[in-house]
Amino acid sequence: MSAEPDGPEGRLRRFATIWGRAVFPVTSTSSTRPEFEKQLVPLARRLSEGLRARAFDPDTGKAVGAALVEAHCTDPEVLSRTLDCVDAYLVLYCGGDGDGEDLRARSARLQHAMAAGYAQALRERTLAEQEAIAQAALRAQGVVAQALHATEARFRAVFEGAAIGIGIADLKGNVLQVNAALLRMFGLSEQSLRSRSVLEWTHPDDAPQTWALYDELVRGEREHYHLEKAFYRPDGTALWTNLTVSLLRDADGEPQYQLALMEDTTERRLLNLRLRYEATHDALTGLPNRTFFFERLEKALSAGEGQRFGLCYLDLDGFKTVNDSLGHAAGDRLLVEVADRLESCATAPGEMVARLGGDEFVALTTGPDTQHTVDELATRIMNALLAPIGVDGRDLTVRGSIGVVEGPAGERSPAEVLRSADITMYRAKSAGGNRFELADPESDARAITRHGLTTALPAALERGEFFIEYQPLVHLGDGSVRGAEALVRWLHPQHGVLSPDRFIPLAEHTGLIVPLGRWVLEQSVRQARTWQERHGGADALVPLRVNVNLSPCQLTHPGLVQDTVDILERTGVEPDALCLEVTESALIGADDDLLKPLRRLAEMGVDIALDDFGTGYSNLANLRRLPVSVLKLDRSFTQSMQQFPADPVDLKIVEGIVSLAHSLGLAVTVEGVETGAQAEQLRILGCDTAQGWYYARPGPPERLHELVLVDATG
């Protein structure tokens, strides 16, 4: 066994060698085989570059096909052997480490382009031959009186030796002469072929203008015409040709004969059909692929007035689990069975099913009444997935989420329709899956806005579009301002100021919450330093501190403690001026590894506040092991206190929580205080600090300075 060639260049030359061995036996060339293989190396390099190019360019394949013709590789076997070789070895030797499925699809498109380029170059070469033959025939007729025998000999040599089929008939359609190539093409004897009239050579696939052009030619109204035409062979199969018919006139210019030149394109046509099928159908399931589906969808959306469309976008629920647990081979068999079931659901006129990729399928229905048919189609698909699918001896339960879009043709583009279906499908999946949902313009708009905000987040942080507002924390005993909670805002160029609930979940989903949270922490700590310099002083009762929220993603980030230490050291702020707020839900069931960073920060002197306390249904006994020093009571417990008398049950709950917190050495902060009566009631119950619109709405950091001055003078 020979060793595999080293490096990309070696593999490229190996591919050229295999190609040369396949093609050389059927090539008319004076070169030796090594010389011929050397000629193929630059062509192989162009194919390799076209296979791995960032954007596919069909001109690469066309140029390679044309180059084969220029190298005199015109035998019918050359193209077939070349395409077989490219199909089998191009990706293997020239694909590198790219995506195999994408490379095979790219290879199929290159083959299609090569066939087209080869056909075009061969056609141009053939037309040149045809022109030479026609000119020879005309010259032969023009000099009959002067050199009849010599001209006849030259014409006969061209006539008999040509690779294309040639026939001469009179203007009534009677065949007078045919060459050997034409006899081989039809599979008939000369006597049989000459006994037939040209007018009998009709075929159902004849272009509408075929016989009109013929009539014009025999009447002398045109000199020639060229078109693609099919003929019947004796065995009933079709012979496809590139046909050129020319009018031959006598010495007086009167029409006398018709000359037909035929190039057999049957194999090339079948090859193009095969390549077209492979380019438009999924290799695994045999269903139409994304390319074919978009062609059909575009056609449906451009239909006339009164036509509608309905689209079902299906994504299998939990398919990744099948691949991860049973392997990709089992996943592929599952997809094949699902494809068969889906195909059986779309059998009515105007319906089709396609595979977009992975476990995503689409079903399309068209017609004047798709409002009803698309619902029925979605129901049939859901029912088709009910029965388990047997794979490797296991019965797998398959479920799917479907997004349904329906509407009149002509109002939306294919990309807009598919985007709406995709959004709706994910809405169905978010609702639990195993269901279908109808598209809703408002939901689409919200999803599109969310996507736009998600993609804009990184650049927004770089451009400095975020800013921080502060809401004061007020001591309920003496009314003094003890600090403030930092609340980040996004000044979006189009949407204006966005509150955290609009973009924090998106930042958590994308991982941007870590750099954003680090920025908020540093800006807030710097602001705390500024407050201390302005009115902290030695005579201040307590130093002003800043509360900063931590997301669950930040809690698990390994750099949390070090980032916090670095920020405190750079700003010169003591740890007790910082309080980090963590939601109760983020700490439910937290293990020691998750709590370890918080314990280290608490040991440094940083306060840890348990935010939204009372909403996470945590065990109160867990408070003993959590490194927290502050409970922030959720506003839902104190809303009833805005009115008098307050709900006695809420009073008892708050009183119990405050008593428990104080017994554990924890301070209690209350959110959402909006009235003086509410603030007074909370003071009586023993709460330590509060924040809310009663004191101040979130605002710029200077606002806190003004409140502090009021407290000092009041």
Written description of the protein model:
Residues 151-221 form the PAS domain. InterPro entries: Biofilm_reg_signaling, EAL_dom, EAL_sf, GGDEF_dom, Nucleotide_cyclase, PAC, PAS, PAS-assoc_C. Residues 450-712 form the EAL domain. The chain has 714 residues and is of the alpha/beta class. The protein has 25 helices and 21 strands. The strands form four sheets. An eight-stranded mixed beta barrel has the order 13-14-16-17-18-19-20-21, surrounded by five helices. Strands 2-1-5-4-3 form a five-stranded antiparallel sheet, sandwiched between helices. A hairpin with a 4-residue loop joins strand 1 and strand 2. Helix 1 packs across helix 2 and helix 12 packs antiparallel against helix 13. The protein is elongated and about 125 Å long. It starts with 6 loop residues before the first helix and ends with a helix. The model is unreliable at 1-5 (pLDDT under 50).
What's the structural blueprint in terms of helices and strands?
Blueprint: H1 7-23, H2 33-52, H3 58-70, H4 76-94, H5 100-142, H6 144-161, E1 165-170, E2 175-178, H7 180-186, H8 190-194, H9 210-218, E3 224-232, E4 238-249, E5 255-264, H10 266-280, H11 290-301, E6 308-317, H12 319-326, H13 328-345, E7 351-357, E8 360-367, H14 370-384, E9 389-391, E10 394-396, E11 399-408, H15 414-430, E12 435-438, H16 441-463, E13 466-475, E14 481-492, E15 496-498, H17 500-510, H18 513-535, E16 545-550, H19 552-555, H20 560-571, E17 578-583, H21 584-587, H22 592-604, E18 607-613, E19 630-633, H23 648-663, E20 667-670, H24 676-685, E21 689-690, H25 701-713
Parallel strand pairs: 11-12, 14-16, 16-17, 17-18, 18-19, 19-20, 20-21
Antiparallel strand pairs: 1-2, 1-5, 3-4, 4-5, 6-8, 6-11, 7-8, 9-10, 13-14, 13-21, 14-15
